[in-house]
Amino acid sequence: MYVKLTNSQPAEAGLQQSGLNFKVQPYYGSFWIKGTIPENFIVRLMQDMQILAEQVLPVPGTDLEELPFELTPTMETTDGTLRITLNDTGTVYLDQVSMIGQDAIDNDGFRPDLFQAIEGFQPPCIRWPDGYFFELYL
């Protein structure tokens, strides 16, 4: 399912997700996009109105394509925002926005704080999404 973003004014418009924790480390992400806009668009990590990291991405084509990004925030925050914006008129369709920190990549794709929290519970069995489960952790 796509999110359709139409900007009828030559001003900043976009979408964002707030309440994110950022460390000073690389974050790798991507999203799928297609559309018609005359200018590039921007991906940012923010805290309130302060930009912690940003990357300008190329104008999308009319066919759906995956665009990767890499951002490293300049400071830590427990109330960060991932923001994707375009600054001119046009319409884009966004899908499957994904981002992962270097610490999770170093931990086989899992957030270290999640593992620490689960370890404290010492559960006899853990069921992960898609029906996978583990009975023994070493």
Count of helices?
Answer: 2
Question: What are the secondary-structure elements, in order, as H or E?
Answer: EEEEEEEEHHEE
Label the overall shape.
globular
Major β-sheet annotation: 4 strands, antiparallel
CATH superfamily placement: Galactose-binding domain-like
* Ends distance: 39 Å
- What spatial order of strands do you see in the largest sheet? 1-8-3-6
- Counting DSSP E segments of at least 2 residues, the number of strands comes to 10
Helix share of residues? 10-25%
CATH topology: Jelly Rolls
Mean pLDDT across the residues is 88
CATH architecture: Sandwich
In what range is the share of β-strand residues?
over 45%
Total domain units: 1
How would the blueprint of this fold be written?
Layout: E1 3-7, E2 13-22, E3 27-36, E4 41-47, E5 50-57, E6 65-71, E7 77-86, E8 90-101, H1 102-105, H2 112-121, E9 126-127, E10 133-134
Antiparallel strand pairs: 1-8, 2-7, 3-6, 3-8, 4-5, 4-7, 9-10
Polypeptide structure, described:
This protein is mainly β and 138 residues long. The protein has one domain (3-109): Galactose-binding domain-like (Jelly Rolls, Sandwich), CATH 2.60.120. It is built from two helices and ten strands, in the order E-E-E-E-E-E-E-E-H-H-E-E. It has helices at residues 102-105, 112-121, and strands spanning 3-7, 13-22, 27-36, 41-47, 50-57, 65-71, 77-86, 90-101, 126-127, 133-134. A four-stranded antiparallel β-sheet has the order 1-8-3-6. A hairpin with a 2-residue loop joins strand 4 (41-47) and strand 5. The longest helix is centred in the C-terminal third of the chain and has 10 residues, at 112-121. The chain is globular, with a radius of gyration of 18 Å. 17% of the residues are buried. The mean pLDDT is 88.
